[in-house]
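Reminder to self: tokens first, then the designed residues, so the page reads top to bottom the way the pipeline ran.
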């Protein structure tokens, strides 16, 4: 049998061939429809993608215009010649003169009608009064005014556009509105208990650690960070008060809630209800006037008018430029006093003589009021005797040098100002007195010239009192116990001496410092805090407070510069840090001491998407 395969061909009839052809055509048509549908869908997707991209581009261009408008508006509002003194109509004309932002790629800042789609508008009058949601959520007194920025962006080829509107608020308030104000990066890392009552704001990063407790809103234009080295077991953890008054820690279940945490923005809002805010939340810097922005320049002496570095604006903003009285003690001991007009009034003032109660090691022990630490006088001419330049000085263990003060007796100074200017003294806002002293021994790095505040238990001048100096300031004894009028002391640095202080106990830098007594200081202080690595870099001490003596500070500490004359480090002193109760005097929400600068900022409140028609474009 043969193994060859035999294939027999079969022929189709005409009818069968037609059926096959029809089937093939149907399949081809179906495939064509599928391909056409796919191509149509792809084209539609591409068109939708282009539309979405176009809309996103218009949104970005409009948002860019808002940012441009914010910068331009802020530059106008930060000019103290323009705001807040300009009325709304004139201010609107200034804003109307600002040109629109440049086009972004294919997007023009114009409406479909062809009109310019950019507007800065004054939305309210400048209002002087309570700002219910101020810096960090605080309620403070100041000036506020509302504005809006509106910007549209249009792609003229496609007609796709977007219109956005941003609401902002300009705020101006005295520096005194804060319990602590830091003009730069600031650290608050106490070794012992520190309770802070009152708003805190820092123009920069805020580093916190240890057992610090903040009961009121805290804000920083930079980051808010935990000091890991100074916190934790045995050291304590910082806590912040939430809206319910509960103290919520920065560390919980091993998680650190600070700016290094990627979920910080939302976590802070949830944990502290908007009372702890940083730059990540849009917190702005609060900027002072030109002289104040220059650091300690504001406390320096007046420059000669023919000096190349003399700026009339800055000189007028200095404490010395606004003082109704200026005292300078020359190297030879001569006292020179001038009034605001530059007239010599030295003959109107004289030296006090203190009552001596005893002595130790050849140094006098002076008679003092036990309750307040006020000094008693052996002789003083009422209305004239306001200072003492006869002190032998004392040893500042932190600086490692003898300090020679001009002792200023606040009770007598106020009486003299009343005698000179009448019952209202110089008037509210004008009671500024400036003290300085030339180098007492003429030797560089020798005796440290300084100013010391004494007998300040009562401040009664209408509108309060400000005492300023370019020198280190020492504040001795109870201060402003009635708290009826505001009191400010400004200097290179501030050291707090208790009402138990006697120069004799610090005559030669005793290894064992004198023991302090509980003392209350109700005032505002403007001084160099050295970054406040500890609060004691701001509230300096020279006594032993470890025996249960309490240091109570009611007021505001404004850290505006680093000390130039007092640079000794706290950690080299060897003194035990006291427990500090730091409270903000609520009187400062409605009252400010004479001469305190006003800081200002522009806050972004909210934004919305609007339409061409709604904006009249």
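Designed residues (617 positions):
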């Amino acid at each position: 049998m043969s193994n060859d395969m035999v294939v027999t061909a079969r022929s189709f009839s005409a009818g069968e061939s037609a059926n096959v052809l029809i089937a093939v055509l149907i399949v081809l048509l179906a495939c064509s429809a599928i391909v056409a549908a796919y191509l149509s869908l792809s084209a539609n997707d591409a068109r939708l993608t282009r539309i979405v991209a176009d809309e996103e581009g218009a949104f970005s261009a409009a948002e860019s215009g808002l940012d441009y408008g914010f910068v331009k508006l802020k530059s106008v509002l930060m000019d103290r010649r323009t705001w807040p003194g300009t009325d709304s109509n004139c201010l609107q004309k200034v804003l109307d003169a600002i040109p629109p932002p440049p086009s972004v790629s294919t997007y023009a800042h114009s409406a479909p009608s062809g009109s310019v789609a950019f507007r800065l508008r004054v939305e309210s009058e400048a209002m002087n009064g309570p700002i219910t949601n101020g810096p960090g959520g605080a309620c403070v007194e100041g000036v506020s005014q509302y504005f809006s920025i509106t910007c549209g962006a249009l792609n003229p080829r496609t007609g796709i556009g977007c219109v956005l509107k941003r609401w902002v608020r300009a705020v101006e308030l005295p520096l005194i509105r804060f319990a602590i104000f830091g003009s730069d990066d600031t650290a608050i890392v106490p070794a012992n208990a520190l309770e802070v009552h009152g708003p805190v704001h820092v123009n920069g990063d805020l580093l916190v650690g240890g057992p610090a407790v903040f009961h009121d809103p805290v804000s920083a234009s930079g980051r808010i960070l935990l000091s890991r080295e100074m916190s934790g077991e045995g050291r304590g953890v910082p806590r912040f008060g939430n809206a319910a008054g509960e103290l919520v820690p920065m560390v919980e279940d091993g998680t650190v809630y600070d700016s290094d945490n990627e979920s910080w923005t939302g976590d802070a809002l949830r944990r502290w209800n908007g009372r702890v805010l940083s730059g990540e939340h849009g917190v702005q810097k609060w900027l002072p006037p030109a002289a104040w922005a220059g650091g300690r320049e504001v406390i320096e002496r007046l420059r000669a008018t023919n000096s190349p570095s003399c700026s009339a604006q800055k000189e007028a903003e200095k404490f010395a430029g606004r003082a109704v009285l200026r005292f300078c003690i020359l190297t030879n001991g001569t006292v020179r006093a001038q009034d605001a007009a530059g007239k010599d009034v030295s003959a109107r003032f004289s030296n006090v003589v203190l009552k001596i109660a005893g002595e130790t090691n050849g140094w006098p022990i002076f008679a003092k009021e036990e309750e307040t630490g006020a000094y008693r006088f052996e002789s003083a001419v009422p209305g004239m005797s306001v200072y003492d330049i006869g002190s032998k000085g004392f040893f500042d263990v932190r600086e490692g040098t003898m300090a020679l003060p001009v002792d200023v007796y606040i009770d007598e100074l106020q009486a003299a100002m009343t005698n000179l200017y009448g019952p209202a003294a110089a008037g509210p806002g004008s009671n500024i007195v400036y003290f300085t002293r030339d180098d007492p021994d003429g030797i560089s790095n020798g005796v440290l010239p300084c100013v010391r505040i004494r007998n300040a238990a009562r401040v009664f001048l209408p509108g309060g009192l400000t005492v300023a100096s370019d020198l280190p300031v020492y504040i001795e004894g109870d201060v402003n116990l009635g708290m009826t009028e505001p009191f400010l002391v400004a200097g290179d640095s501030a050291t707090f001496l208790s009402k138990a202080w006697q120069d004799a106990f610090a005559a030669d830098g005793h290894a064992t410092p004198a023991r302090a007594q509980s003392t209350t200081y109700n005032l505002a202080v403007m001084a160099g805090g050295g970054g406040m690595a500890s609060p004691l870099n701001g509230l300096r001490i020279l006594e032993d407070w470890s025996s249960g003596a309490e240091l109570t500070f009611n007021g505001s500490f404004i850290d505006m510069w680093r000390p130039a004359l007092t640079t000794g480090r706290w950690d080299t002193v060897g003194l035990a840090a006291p427990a500090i109760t730091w409270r903000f005097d609520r009187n400062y929400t409605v009252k400010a001491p004479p001469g305190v600068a006003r800081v200002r900022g522009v806050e972004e409140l909210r934004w919305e998407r609007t339409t061409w028609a709604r904006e009249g474009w």
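The first strand starts at residue 118 and ends at 122.
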